[in-house]
């Protein structure tokens, strides 16, 4: 099976520091269609930088990134922005919603921009997503009128609204309490079960244990990986135990 995302010898060096700071040091990575990949590592290991580089939010210093055969490193800024809009979905630690729009309109806006000639279909799709993830009843609310868990489920709906090839999540539960974390990870697990390809950066072992595979970064390099297979509620505890043991061997 051909990878949906592939990174080859990816490096990132910040030249603004003296001496220059290398954050990524030749990362090779392949993600297969429908896979749920988690990225872990200590603070400063390069997790978020890797996510930004493989999603086109930042340019690597060297190396190549491709999504479905399209070389991201060869695209100009306009083409890259268009590809992010139409082929990628993003869930961040903060929602980054527009305060003057309702929850529903925040979700709908990128879908309308991605498919301007199919607006009716976008509206139907967004309403179905909001129903699926249990936030249809707060669609008319403002972003300060819902819980943190509801806001992150809205972020997931927004990420899926344009039917992306791949969804990137950067610490999606980092600002949530344990109950809301369980709520959001349940939603992301459902996204994966629906066939979406998902790459998630997280510092939380219980969240990473939901993934099919976990990679560990140290000093900007992938030093280990753990294959877990498909998550089920029945094996959740065993997966978390295996995850914690694996993290201990990596000095986490």
Give a description of the structure.
The chain is of the alpha/beta class and 252 residues long. It has a single domain, classed as Rossmann fold (3-Layer(aba) Sandwich). The protein is 37% helix and 25% strand. It has 8 helices and 10 strands. The strands form 2 sheets. A 6-stranded mixed β-sheet has the order 6-7-8-3-9-10, with helices on both faces. Strands 2-1-4-5 form a 4-stranded antiparallel β-sheet, with helices on one face. The relative contact order is 0.17.
Keywords:
alpha/beta, 252 residues, globular, 37% helix, Rossmann fold, six-stranded mixed beta sheet, 10 strands, four-stranded antiparallel beta sheet
Q: Kindly, what is the distance between the CA atoms of the first and last residues, rounded to a whole number of angstroms?
A: 32 Å
Rg on CA atoms, Å: 18 Å
Low-pLDDT segments, ≥5 res: none
β-sheet strand percentage: 15-25%
Beta strands, count: 10
Largest sheet: 6 strands, mixed
Structural class: alpha/beta
């Amino acid at each position: 099976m051909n990878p949906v995302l592939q990174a080859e010898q990816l490096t990132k060096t910040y030249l603004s520091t003296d001496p220059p700071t290398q954050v990524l040091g030749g990362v090779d990575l392949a993600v297969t269609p429908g896979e749920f990949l988690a990225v872990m590592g200590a603070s400063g290991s390069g997790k978020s930088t890797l996510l930004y580089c493989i999603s086109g939010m930042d340019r690597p210093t060297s190396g190549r990134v491709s999504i479905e055969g399209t070389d991201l490193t060869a695209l100009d800024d306009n083409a890259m922005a268009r590809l992010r809009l139409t082929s990628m979905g993003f869930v961040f630690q903060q929602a980054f919603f527009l305060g003057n729009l309702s929850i529903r309109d925040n979700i709908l806006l990128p879908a309308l921009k991605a498919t301007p000639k199919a607006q009716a279909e976008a509206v139907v799709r967004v309403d179905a997503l909001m129903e699926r993830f249990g936030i249809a009843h707060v669609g008319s609310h403002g972003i300060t009128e819902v819980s943190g868990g509801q806001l992150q489920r809205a972020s997931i709906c927004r990420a899926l609204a344009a039917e992306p090839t791949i969804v990137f999540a950067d610490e999606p539960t980092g600002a949530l309490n344990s109950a809301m974390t369980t709520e959001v990870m349940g939603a992301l697990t459902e996204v994966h079960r629906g066939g979406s390809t998902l790459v998630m950066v997280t510092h939380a072992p219980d969240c990473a244990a939901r993934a099919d595979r976990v990679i560990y970064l140290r000093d900007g390099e992938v030093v280990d990986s753990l294959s877990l297979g498909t998550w089920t509620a029945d094996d959740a505890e065993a997966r978390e135990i295996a995850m914690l043991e694996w993290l201990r061997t990596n000095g986490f």
